[in-house]
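Hey all, sorry for the wall of text incoming. These are the two entities for the joint prediction.
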Amino acid sequence: MRIPCPFCGPRDITEFAYHGDATLTRPAPGDAAMHDYVYLRDNPTGVHREHWYHSAGCHAWLTVTRNVSTHEIVGAEMAHKEAS
Amino acid sequence: MRKEYGCVLDLTQISAFAGLRPVGSGRGLIVRERIGLALATVMVRKGRTAALAAAVKEQFDIALPAGPHGSGSDSTSFLGTGPGRWLVTHDARTPGFVDSLSRKLEGLASVVDQSDAYGVLRLSGPSILEVLAKGVAIDLSAPAFPAGSVAATVVAHIGVTLWKVDETPTIHVAVARSYAGSFLHWLETSAAIYGMIME
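and here's what came out:
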């Protein structure tokens, strides 16, 4: 599996660390939704958006669009707007 | 000179690749350690990329690369190693280079001295690409990785920064100094069949 890093180009999956669901938004502190944000996860099929960290390359956080059924990587972009 | 109470008055420069020695019988890989380099990481401050590029142009007459590319020369180069981050190499033996770099980029970027953090090798020779292909998972041949390209990647689980300076090809590689011995072990083993010599 390869991830097309927007900075480095296509790189082997072993250069990256997986960090989970990129579709969540952190709620305000003290909000009752914090429990769900921290602990509850959907188990989707098909195309999903997730965070990956290019730990052995450019050290950028990426938002990767991946089909979790086929493992096809549909795309990758910088998680941080200013970095892209 | 007498040392008192463990106070070290004289520091000796010890090369990171002091164990470098010829391997095998051929001349497939030619290696030279770049000794005495000044190295620094430069990380741009928020929203100051354009101002940093202008300052680098004015102070060094170097076009700050936006992607994984290098600008400059062996004397002074800016190597793009990540978004908003560069590895600066300086080989002109200017005393206090990193301090002066830090002052020149004041307010625009964070400058951290890495001179004693990396060992740097200059690699060339007819078998260089075959040797590196044994550990580098990216294509280093000319169309995919032309002169001026920079890559931060791993070799045998060891983080490396590679940059190609010409199409001979000549490739420079920076390795964290504490991993220099392990990297050299990989390099010697991989180059043995082609032969490795010191320049």
